[in-house]
Amino acid sequence: MFAVPDPTYGQRVGTAVVLAPYEVPERLAVVPSLPHTAKRASDRGAVAGLYGH
């Protein structure tokens, strides 16, 4: 994460991600939060249901 200049807020958050060529996603979703299981782990099934195919 790094700072990106912004005329309104002064700075905003930027992120850089490095992926292998075979790992390039078809979709990118910028979301406010992710669903979690009862044990507070990310619920991958729920994420796929919300943002996947």
Secondary structure tally, helices: 1
Query: Which series of helices and strands comes N to C?
Result: EEH
Radius of gyration, in angstroms, nearest whole number: 15 Å
Global outline: extended
Kindly report how far apart the N and C termini lie: 28 Å
What's the main sheet like? Answer: 2 strands, antiparallel
Give the averaged pLDDT, no decimals.
90
Portion in strands? 15-25%
Low-confidence stretches: none
Spatially, the strands of the biggest sheet line up as: 1-2
Compose a concise summary of this entry.
The protein has 53 residues and is an alpha+beta fold. The chain has one helix at residues 44-51; strands spanning 2-6, 10-14. The mean pLDDT is 90.
Task: Describe this protein's structure.
With 53 residues, the protein is an alpha+beta fold. The protein contains 1 helix and 2 strands. The chain has a two-stranded antiparallel sheet with strand order 1-2. The longest helix has 8 residues. The protein is extended, with a radius of gyration of 15 Å.
Please describe the topology of this protein.
Blueprint: E1 2-6, E2 10-14, H1 44-51
Antiparallel strand pairs: 1-2
Features of the shown structure:
alpha+beta, single chain, 53 residues, two-stranded antiparallel ribbon
